[in-house]
Amino acid sequence: MHEIGNWIIDVETRAFDPSQRMKEFFGYYIDEVMSLENSLECVTEEYREKTKEAIEKAFLKGESYNIEYPVIGLHDKTFRWLRDQAKFYPAKEGKPAHYSGTVLDITERKEFEQRKDDFISIASHELKTPVSSLKAALQLMDRIKNKPAPEMMIRLIDQANKSMDKISGLIEELLNVSRMNEGELKLNKTTFTLAHMMQQCCNHIREDGIHKLIFSGNENLQVHADENRVDQVVVNLVNNAVKYAPGCSDIHLSVEKENSMALVKVRDCGPGIAKEKLQHLFDRYYRVDHGSHHQSGLGLGLYISSEIIKRHNGQIGVKSEVGEGTTFWFTLPL
Question: Is 103 in contact with 82 (CB distance < 8 Å)?
Answer without folding.
Answer: yes
